[in-house]
Here is the input.
Amino acid sequence: MNMPLWFSNLLFWSAQVALLALTGGFLPGLFQIRQPRVLLAYWRAILGLSLVLPFVEPWHRMQSSDSIAFTPRLGSSAISATNPAVTHWHFSSFQIIAEILGVAILGGIGARMVILALGLLKLRQFRRASSPNSLSAESAAALEQMRAQLRARAEFRLSTDVDSPVTFGLAAPVILLPERFLAMNAQSQAAIACHELLHVRRHDWAHHLAEETIGAVLWFHPGIAWLIARIRLAREQVVDLDVLRLTNARKPYLEALLEFANARGSLATIPAPPFLAERQLVERITLMLKEVRMSRTRLVASLTASSCGIALAIIFAVWSFPLKAAPHFGPYPPQRGVVAPGVSGGVGSGASGRGAPSGGPLGGVTGGIEGGISGDSAKLQHLDEPTVDQTTIWVDTTKKGPMLRQVRGMGRLVRGEGSTNLVARVTLPAFLTVDVRPNQNAAIATRNGPLANGHVSGISPSPSNDTRGVDIALDAVPEGVSAGLEIDATIDIEKLENVLYVGRPVHATANSTVSLFKIVNDGKEAVRLEVKLGRSSVNTVEVLDGLQVGDKVILSDMSNYDNANRIRLTDEKHLSSR
Here is the structure.
């Protein structure tokens, strides 16, 4: 066949990726690897290897017709080196077919890129058409509580254009909520908010855009699309398990998934992950309904065996479908014994022989599979002492002294009953208002900064009995402020004298025992210990047992290292206190 070199290499690379994807898809089932965090790193490694394979494997240079000489047998006439070999299978039209297919591939890439750009524009339109003020006070309070718990800043907006929650944005993340969100119970709303805020904290929209771009460029390869689908499923499963761990609301969360299972398909055209893709429903629910456990020894053994299997698949694929470089037409050194009569000075054989690839770049790829997957597994708490970059964690020092207890809620300015004076009305969960009393001091702020000071003037129950309304009389109202302005209120409950306290860790609650990492060995390591907590505030919590004055602890979410009792800290110069 008269096949163009570029088309031949494209077909062979596609075959290599197909073999790699088939092998990669078979191995997790063979070794019963079901942990979502491990699978997420595994599928990303397979996709990354597929993309870098052409750049690291050895290419075979083709022979040129004018570089081949023949040694005639006795009695035979000399054969011209420039005469082409005669073949009965020469398809002159294959060049045209390859060009047509090439144009189709490029056209598909262009079309997919246009669709991606239009999807980004549609997201922008959805954001502009959404409303930030349509959420009830109860829903806003629940969302703010979850936002404070996860320390993930994102704007919640209500949209009539979506049937399922959608999260997008990098510098200013936005979470679009459908209208049916308002009709759901508080636990389901909190679970949905937790799911979307975890995506924000993990910067998953950036990964989603990268996957969309790869899928657009390589749209013609089903193996690439399948790998991207597996990555997205594993990512959603990781978030699902984190939601269950943080909210302990399995049933409300499953009900929320089923509620959005019948959402319309309009979100398929926008580059943002929906709350639930229908094809993921069964696998996501199945994982949440059963516990997936595997010992560390078995997991490491399974990953090692999978790495060896992937390495063998790459070697076989590269050997069976080698990529070829264009022939070299430069001068070749003479070679003895391979000279045609009448050729002055002789002509060398020139072209490199074809053989099985070994060593060199391929050795780097093979080692990269084992090192890459094992390296990601280290980040996922499967090594005894994983390494943590200190610039990615929050640290605070245990102190002793006065601690101000506060509660925080969101609301808006309203007109007082029978009065023209403005009052800040906020909604708080009922358990947070147990210690709220009239005349307690409060600070009122907006998105632009502090607004005014005031004091609690009244507490009233809400129809749901799960929340309470708190009215705060303002000491002074700045000019130009009117009713309806959204505000954030912080109420001072009490001042505790001479108590041991520390910054409030992520996921920590009052009167509980939590597992924290204390920094030791001059900031080079951190060890796990149990800490008993007492009364809590917005940003601080009382320490009853487990810490002493001066102890530095990590406040960040360290759930990725649940299996580690000790971690190594790097980049000590960036270690800082909050």
